[in-house]
Predict the 3D structure of the following.
Amino acid sequence: VQLQASGGGLVRAGGSLRLSCAASGNIVGIKVIGWYRQAPGKQREVVAEITSGGNTNYADSVKGRFTVSRDNAKRNVYLQMNSLKPEDTAVYYCRAEDWYPHWGQGTQVTVSS
């Protein structure tokens, strides 16, 4: 499984961004796919995930502001981020799991105050 993330950038507080992750390779066995983030000096943490059955899971800090979704072919997963805060600043990573975890490259999200 290969993951290609895109869509990061610089935005002011209160603004929105949409991240995209394109999955390729043997995606049939993917059980869950979603987004993690890592801020400077902090551990990587889960942001939002969606399972093969369509169930979603969100970090408490983003509930009500972020939405994870995927297309019908399950090849693309998205993270719509609204009402962004400076504390959302981080490198965001796409992650998929079949029998192993697979990581995409990170995309920087910077939210200015």
